[in-house]
Structure formats: C-alpha cells, structure tokens
Specification:
Belongs to the DegT/DnrJ/EryC1 family. This protein has 377 residues and is an alpha/beta fold. Helices cover 36% and strands 13% of the residues. The structure holds pyridoxal-5'-phosphate (PLP).
Length: 377
Amino acid sequence: MIYRPGRIFLSVPQMGGHEKNYVQKAIEDNWVTTAGPNLPGFEHDICQHTNARHAVALSSGTAAIHLALRLVGISAGDEVLCSTFTFVASANPILYLGASPVFIESEAETWNMCPDTLRSAVEDRLNQGKKPAAILLVHLYGMPAKLKEIMAVADEFGIPVIEDAAEALGSRYGGHQVGTFGRIGVFSFNGNKIITTSGGGAIITAEEDLANKAKFLSTQAKDPAPYYQHSEMGYNYRLSNISAGIGRGQMEMLEVRVKQRREIFNYYRNQLESIEGIEFVAEPKTSFANRWLTTILLPEGHKPESIRQALEDENIETRFLWKPMHLQPLFASNLYFGDGLSERLFNCGLCLPSSSSLQEEDLEKVVKNLKKLLEVV
Ligand SMILES: *Cc1c(COP(=O)(O)O)cnc(C)c1O
C-alpha cells in the first residue's frame, strides 16, 4: 500500500488509552504467552457486551470460523450454505475441512443472505439427497442479516447456524447482539475492524461444552495426562495474553466506536443523498448497525474503479465492495443459488473511509471530492 502523509484511510485502529496498562501489566507479570489473566478478562468483557454465555478468544476471525465449523461437526464431503457476498475468510475455512461451500445470494434490503434463496437451496440439496451440514451467514459491513427469517428456515430443517459477525461487533437485531442467534457467533479483532487486538478473533456460544471444546481444540487438543497425549487433531489458535490486553482496553471503547462510525455514516448520507442516483443501505426497523464501513452505490454511468483511482490521486483510500464468492476463480466449481444481485452491487458500489478516528476536515475532503467527481456543485 502506498503511504503518503495526510492519507485518509478506509479503516484503521484507534487506541482508547488503557490498552497499554493491560499490556504493561502482562509484561511485568511475565504473562507473555497464550495464557494469563487478560484472556478470561477479555472473554468476560465480550460476554458482558454481547450477553453471550461463553466466549473463547482466538488468534483470528478466520481461525474462529474454522473452529466453529469443526465444533458443529463439519467434515470432509459436507456442504455448507454460505453467504456469497462476503470476504473470502468466511468461505476458506470450509475448504480447510474438506467440505464444499454452496453459495447463497443476498437480498436487496440488507445485502445479506436471502432467506427465500436459502430455502430454495435447502430444498434443492435435500432433493439431491444431500442435507446441508451448516449455514454460515454473514452480517456484512455491520448490517444485521434477516435473522428471524433465516433462523426459521434453519430450525425447520434442523441445520446449525454459524454467524460470521466479524464486521458486526456491537450490531443488534431485535434488541439482541448479533452473534447470539446461531449456535456459534464469530468476531474478528483484525486491525481494520471496529475494535482490534492487532490480530485476533473470538467465538461466542450459549453451550458450555462447545466453549470448553473450543479451548481444548485451540490449544493442541492435549488429553488430560501428565505427558503429551493426543486423541484428536487440534490447532494452535489461542489468542496471546498480550493481544487480549489490547482487547480489554479496546472493549472499554466499543460503544464509543460504534457511535463514531454511525456518525460518519450519517454525515456522508446527509451530505451526499441529494446526488441523483446515489444509494445508501438503510437500517431496517428491526436492526441497529455498527456501520463498520459506509458503503454507497454510485449513480448510473459511474464506475467504482474510476472513482477509486481519482480519490487515490487525492490521497483518499476507498475500496470496491467484496467481490462475491461465486465469481471467484477459487470457487469456480462450487454451487451458487441466486439472481446475481451481489454481482450488480459489486459493479457499482464503493466503501468510503470510515475510520473512527477521522476528523471533520477529512470527511469534508472526501465529500468535496466525491461531489466533484459525481459532478454536482
Ligand atoms: C475480517 C473478516 C473475517 C476474518 O477475520 P480475520 O480476523 O481477519 O481472520 C471473516 N469474515 C469477514 C466477513 C471479515 O470481514
């Protein structure tokens, strides 16, 4: 990535201030490893905020998805119904287990998994004698998916749900935090997310045995013996106590960060919605979005790449929307159910700078340039 001073970034970390106290204490007490008091501390904070019963802190969101799939019993040859409109890290862990993703298109209101398409896909796979082994749904850009309708399909057919809430920590649906609807919810604390541990992730669940199993598998699945004995395949996926210390400081600021990101979204919308043809994703009545990234659909006649390049020349970072998984060469041979909505969004959408640390003058600069490029004065 090109760095020039004064660059306006898409999404960068913002420290709250207390992170270094937790990290310093960990160093003083020599808890510089994947055990130590910041881990249960951070997990407690996650549970407090989400109202989840159990949380397990892990080394990344991708690792968390991999473990979640393993915990609900996914194995080689299984099919997992997965949102197509997402980042590749949602789908890669399905491949790690030798299973196949079957991609489900979005609906237009939230851009997330369409419950009707999901139902058609389940029925189709059942007709083929292949019962889907799990549903992996994503809350993209922090906007909650249509959970009520999706959970109804999942419950009707008895299919476990994993929520990829990597981008959606702090978002709510029907008053409840996302990640608490499925059997397992996943968060990411990568540097570009709403809060960060520099790199990290977590799962949340209501089931104590799943949480215990996650701790066991994420620390090499060591049997209770005085020597190193293993009956199951494990992973080295535990978060470090240093990273968890950063996480504890960050959790103190989560609500403020959500407020800041929502204010950024409102600013862009107020300034830009008068441009003919521009579109923002509205928040349905059921939902409260953390607005991790503000996304827009460009008016007809404008291409994301030319706008992105022109803003780049002004030292402003913007990005394409995620390229749907069913269009990725990696997944060329996987099944897809849908009507192409995400491809149309990909072809006319853009993510705007949304860092919580953005200053008013930064936002004014982005808006001024966008108005110029979309030719309104
Ligand atoms: C960031 C992200 C992940 C992966 O999280 P990491 O911590 O980067 O491994 C998974 N799914 C989605 C939708 C993401 O945005």
